[in-house]
Design brief:
The complex is a heterodimer. Chain A is mainly α. Helix content of chain A is 68%, strand content 0%. Chain A is built from 10 helices and no strands. In chain A, α1 crosses α7 and α1 runs antiparallel to α9. The model of chain A has no long low-confidence stretch (mean pLDDT 92). By secondary structure, chain B is mainly alpha-helical. Chain B has one domain. In chain B, the strands form 2 sheets. A two-stranded antiparallel sheet of chain B has the order 1-4. A two-stranded parallel ribbon of chain B has the order 2-3. Chain B is elongated, with a radius of gyration of 19 Å. The mean pLDDT of chain B is 92. Classes of the chains: A mainly alpha, B mainly alpha. At the A-B interface, α3, α7, α8, α9 and α10 of A face α2, α3, α4 and α5 of B.
């Protein structure tokens, strides 16, 4: 096997694995902070008389927020890695240590962002008699910061892997921005459904959907005590996080995988990607049929 | 690439990006399984899928315009089909609802009835076949448009300036990402947070998007031309 192909194969596997883990962690981070679209339910709750203890740092869309963390961490990491390399540290060690420092700085910024976002959110609920509970802020805050650190670290490493091993010509900070925004929109579109439609509404019947009239009637009690934002990611990681990870990991892995072959020259990856899209579309139709056959129509709606 | 042709490429690419947002099914209320579409705002989702296409197009930038545009389109389509497939999976296994559209009674492709499977009080959930196909068409358009902006800017930079190739690629990527974000946000004013793609009645408002995107893209294209060629 040619060394170039071997490097590419290692790069594709590594990028896919990092993307997979980043998907799980990013989804958990957004769930821990009630980010993205389910935060509308957390905001509605005080308005219908529910006093909540959720940590709510949703003052920006998940994709741009995540893009900011990833791009900031990667920019710091790139500059530091040059400095570390000048000091005589080996290239790979320099990148790894610089990525850790970049992610650590971003983690502190995310903590400040989270504190002020939560305080301003709760302050806006004051007409609805929602108190500011310090435990609702201080308990999930370090957890959320830790998840933000891991997300920024993994996306920074992913940017360096795709740039260095896979040969993407973009600078690593731009790649981190692209990955951050893409992963944010994927996590928002897949994993957050389990938080918004299931975890927040566990006292509703499974499979009943969430009618508009029930919105805001979220869970207030957890497995023990009041429901808080530390409870959420451990539940959502099992399916929501894994699904997000599959989506992002598959995209990065399959995109790299199609570039390993050369049977049709320069057009090989385009042809293979078209085939993969067609196969996944067939899976989608099959899944729709399987779901309809498994659940059947809702009682009383068979003849609609 | 001739700078004038590159400027026209940037304008056309920007307009195509604006059109793509109408095709991609997305709804913020989808996060509560209360509406058809991917569970996030149409603008942000389109930006996410377009930027994934840009990442794929980056690999092919030195191979010419057609292959760069095709790579971007397919990279974007790969992102959207993965997201839709797994969003349907989480709706099926995580929240217990089947894919149902709110804008048609029978799926035009499969012929499956929709209303019996719609949970009471909601407007649909996840993506049935026709809605998913609309998403793929939108992603192909968006990826192609973004890559066209990327390749045109890169062509203009290499033709006129003497900056290093790696720098030119990154500048072109940043311009394409910026054009993408501008033209993805503009349709939000007519979609107001929800669309089911090509079957949605909001498709009739496409001309409004078209005009606003043409105006924004002309400004962007002329500004980039002025920055690279004139100044």
């Amino acid at each position: 096997m040619e060394p170039v192909t071997l490097t590419l194969m290692i790069g594709v596997g590594l990028a896919g694995a990092i993307a997979f883990i980043a998907g799980i962690i990013e989804d958990a981070e957004s769930d821990a902070g009630s980010a993205s679209n389910p935060n509308s339910q957390v905001q509605l709750a005080p308005q219908i008389g529910h006093i909540i203890r959720y940590y709510d740092k949703a003052i920006a869309g998940e994709p741009p927020q995540n893009g900011l963390w990833a791009a900031s961490a990667c920019t710091i990491a790139l500059l530091l890695s040059w400095r570390f390399a000048d000091m005589g540290i080996g290239q790979y060690y320099a990148i790894f240590f610089a990525a850790v420092v970049g992610a650590a700085i971003v983690c502190l910024v995310q903590g400040c962002f989270g504190v002020f976002a939560h305080l301003s959110r709760i302050a806006s609920f004051s007409p609805f008699k929602q108190p500011l509970y310090w435990d609702a802020l201080l308990t999930p805050l370090p957890y959320s910061m830790g998840l933000a650190f891991l997300t920024a670290l993994l996306l920074t490493l992913l940017a360096f892997v795709t740039s260095g091993l896979l040969g993407n010509p973009f600078a690593p900070p731009l790649l981190a921005l692209l990955f951050g925004i893409s992963l944010g929109s994927i996590a928002s579109g897949t994993g957050d459904i389990q938080y918004g439609a299931e975890r927040l509404y566990q006292h509703h019947i499974f499979g009943s959907g969430i009618p508009i009239s029930k919105m805001g009637d979220i869970d207030l009690k957890g497995e023990y005590g009041f429901r808080n934002s530390v409870d959420t990611p451990y539940f959502c990681m099992r399916l929501g996080g894994t699904i997000t990870a599959f989506a992002f990991g598959l995209i990065i892995f399959l995109d790299g995988w199609t570039r390993l072959f050369t049977f049709a020259g320069e057009w090989t990856s385009v042809i293979l990607e078209a085939i993969v899209v067609a196969i996944l579309f067939i899976f989608l139709v099959w899944l729709e049929k399987f779901t309809r056959d498994s659940y059947g129509p809702y009682p009383g709606q068979e003849d609609l | 690439m001739d700078p004038i042709a590159a400027m026209i490429g940037i304008i056309i690419g920007g307009v195509i990006v604006g059109i793509c947002v109408h095709f991609i099914p997305a709804s913020a209320v989808g996060a509560m399984s209360a509406s058809t579409g991917i569970a996030t705002g149409p603008s942000m989702l389109s930006a996410g899928c377009g930027l994934a296409g840009l990442y794929a197009a980056g690999y092919s930038i030195k191979l010419g315009l057609p292959i760069t545009v095709a790579s971007g389109a397919l990279g974007s389509a790969l992102m959207i089909i993965c997201t839709m497939l797994l969003a349907n999976a989480i709706c099926a296994f995580g929240t217990g609802v089947a894919p149902v559209a709110g804008t048609y009674d029978k799926d035009p492709i499969t012929g499956w009835r929709q209303k019996p499977f719609m949970s009471p009080g909601t407007d649909g959930h996840s993506m049935p076949t026709t809605t998913a196909l609309s998403g793929i068409i939108g992603a192909l358009l968006g990826g192609a448009g973004g890559s066209l902006v990327f390749a045109s800017t890169y062509g203009m930079l290499t033709e006129v300036t003497a900056i290093a190739t790696a720098t030119a690629i990154t500048i072109a990527g940043m311009v394409a990402a910026g054009v993408f974000l501008v033209n993805c946000v503009l349709p939000a004013y007519v979609l107001v947070g929800k669309t089911e793609g090509m079957t949605d009645p909001k498709m009739k408002k496409l001309p409004k998007t078209l005009i606003s995107c043409i105006v924004a893209s002309v400004f962007t294209g002329v500004f980039i031309y002025a920055a690279v060629v004139v100044i």
